[in-house]
Amino acid sequence: MLDLGDLDYLEALINSKPSFFLDKLQKKLATVQQVHASLPTITCMLHSLALNHKRVLRALT
After folding, report:
1. What is the CA radius of gyration of the chain?
2. Phi/psi at 43 (nearest 5 deg)?
3. Can you tell me the distance from the alpha carbon of 6 to that of 12, in angstroms, rounded to the nearest whole number?
4. Predicted confidence (pLDDT) per residue in 2-54, tens digit
5. From CA 55, how far away is CA 29, in angstroms rounded?
6. Is there a contact between 20 and 14 (Cβ–Cβ < 8 Å)?
7. Would the pTM of this model clear 0.90, i.e. be above it?
8. What is the secondary structure of 1-61 as a DSSP string?
9. Which distant-in-sequence residues (6+ apart) come within 8 Å of 56 by Cβ?
10. Domain boundaries, the chain
11. How many whole angstroms separate alpha carbon 36 and alpha carbon 59?
């Protein structure tokens, strides 16, 4: 399970580069935070942060 520090890290990654793919986020979590999370777990956490596809698309345009 991801803790608050991991969630903050995910949010910072997405804010810095909205086009990150889930597998890249997963690798960054593993290397930087030493957290091994499944892709579905990362997806759920991004939704809990209100980081969804629409928001990412808006950030890219």
Report:
1. 11
2. -60, -45
3. 10
4. 899 998 998 899 888 888 889 999 999 999 999 999 999 998 888 887 766 55
5. 21
6. yes
7. no
8. ---HHHHHHHHHHHHH-TT--HHHHHHHIIIII-----HHHHHHHHHHTT--HHHHHHHH-
9. 14, 18, 19
10. 4-60
11. 27
C-alpha 42, offset from chain centre: 6
Residue with tokens 């593993």: 30
Tokens of 36: 């091994």
Question: What is the amino acid identity at position 19?
Answer: S
Length of the chain: 61
Is 11 in contact with 42 (CB distance < 8 Å)? no
Residue 1 · residue 43 · CB < 8 Å: no
Residue 46, burial from CB neighbour count under 10 angstroms (0-12, 13-18, 19+): buried
